[in-house]
Amino acid sequence: AIIDQIRKGLLDMVALKRASNRSRLEAAFDVAERELGVARLLDPEDVDVDRPDEKSVMTYVAQFLHKYPELRSDSGDTVSMVQTEYNNMMTWLYERNSYLQHMRQANTLSTNYADYAAFQNEVLNKVDLYNKLHSLVDSRSVISITAESWREIEMLWKQLEMHMRYWLRLLDSKLPPPFGQVGDWIAQAEDMIESDDIPTVMNEETASIISRKLEDHKAFFADLPHIETLFEQGVASSSYQNKVPEAQLDNMAQRLHAIGPRAAQRRVRLKFLEHKCCLIAFLHLTETKLRIWTVKYGREEKVQQLLEQYTNFVSRNRIFQEFNKAYIDMQQVVEEYKREGNIDQKESIGIDRFMRETAERWKNVSMELRCVQSMLEEVVAYWRRWNP
């Protein structure tokens, strides 16, 4: 695609569509070197693999961008334009974060809501550029941004959002009753929704952490109707006139209105993760037991002991029935999460893949479980036959 954009007709794109991956790569590398003067740093076998070396590929592609800086992305931007936008965004984020950090440490953040609103408008004006740069991460377009470069912007952007939330919470806390109380509750709610430090390892310990978070979530957001009533009473009262900026009150109303749907999305996400952890832990425990039961068998007493362990774990715990029940529950939770969790297509595809892989994994495990029982019973019968 890059070669065709630089000079049309160098490659027969129609014919290449019918060729193999390696044939297409060979033709592209050859034409790029012969016609465009781009050194052949790669061979087809370097790229036609599951995980090609990212740095090598980027080094090769960079040659095109240096030789032909007029190359444009799908949106019409040149390399230099995107680089300038990226640098400007980084500079702006560093400056704004440094400023707010200094003001927080010096305890000199403005107590005038208009100052906050002006700063927030400046942030909002950068959202389109932020989203544009995000769309270029590992893009198939001629121009892209590496995941590593994007992480720097993402980290600084999150820091900025954290500073802005702190500033707004400070402003709201200084409002007269009941708005100060309402503002503080909204800030706590937003912090709970925004920051979920859930371990990435899906096991029983993580399931317990998520379960506690889910209980805390239910307890905290049970106060939402009361907070909404307090806010409505405050607005209906004439005592707040000229004491609360209308813009600040509108901001609080919008945030309070958004809390309900956002809290519901967090609840269903936590519920999904809890069930996912439990299902993974269930499978892991069963597979661990299987490894114990399939060791080299010893004397009759040892084999009989293994058979009793199997019976206690599998039969008395109704393992087959319990997993089927857990899997059906998980399917229902998945449907709820897809319906109410506001997830994107990528996450939805990942969930479907997890469910398929889990079903296949259980199919293999359950088959082994049944084989182990037969094997243990046969070994015990063998020992009894030879040791009457």
UniProtKB/TrEMBL annotation:
Keywords: Membrane, Repeat, Transmembrane, Transmembrane helix. One of its GO terms (molecular function) is actin filament binding. Pfam families: CH, Spectrin_SYNE1. It comes from the Eukaryota. Gene3D superfamilies: 1.20.58.60, Calponin-like domain (1.10.418.10). Residues 1-69 form the Calponin-homology (CH) domain. The keyword Repeat applies. One of its GO terms (biological process) is nuclear migration. InterPro entries: CH_dom, CH_dom_sf, LINC-complex_assoc, Spectrin_SYNE1. It is found in: Membrane. GO terms for cellular component: cytoplasm; meiotic nuclear membrane microtubule tethering complex; nuclear outer membrane. This is Calponin-homology (CH) domain-containing protein. It comes from Clastoptera arizonana (Arizona spittle bug).
